[in-house]
Amino acid sequence: MTTARIVVLFALAAVAEIGGAWLIWQAVRENRGWWLALLGILALGAYGFIAALQPDAHFGRVLAAYGGVFVAGSLAWGIVVDGFRPTMWDYIGSAVALVGAGIIVLAPSTPVSE
User: Fold this and answer.
1) What are the angstrom distances between the C-alpha of 6 and each of 2, 65, 69?
2) Mind listing the pLDDT tens digit for each residue in 66-114?
3) Which of 16, 22, 27, 38 could form a disulfide with 47 if both were Cys (CB 3.0 to 4.6 A apart)?
């Protein structure tokens, strides 16, 4: 259940953060109305709360792992919402980022001794 919870929370966080940033982009860069920026700010705030629900108590680890999810999610958002056509290197970079996120989240948490 914990792994499923982690995955669901990362997916929800990605939708909130990427969606919020996209809404602000639409308001600022595409001149589609400042009300979209306000919705984006709300979504970005929701992202912060969703990230805080992760079972791991270490902020740095959660955000570092989420970075990989953000990379892949951003490319997926671009494909689905904006019609972006990634290169092979985009896919490879995204896969590397997700592998890194998996290592951070799933590896045993034994600190490196000094």
Assistant:
1) 6, 10, 11
2) 999 999 999 999 999 999 999 999 999 999 999 999 999 888 877 777 5
3) 16
pLDDT band at 44 (very low <50, low <70, confident <90, very high): very high
| Look-up of token digits 């629900």 | 53
List Cα–Cα distances, 17 to 39, 45, 65, 88, 108, in angstroms: 11, 8, 15, 25, 28
Listed in sequence order, the residues at least 6 apart from 108 whose beta carbon sits closer than 8 Å to its beta carbon are none
How many residues are listed for the chain in this entry? 114
Report, in angstroms and rounded to the nearest whole number, the Rg of the chain calculated over CA atoms. Answer: 16
Q: Measure Cα distances from 87 to 79, 84, 93 in Å.
A: 11, 10, 10
Helix, strand or coil, per DSSP, at residue 84: coil
Give the residue among 24, 78, 20 at the shortest CA–CA distance from 51.
Answer: 20
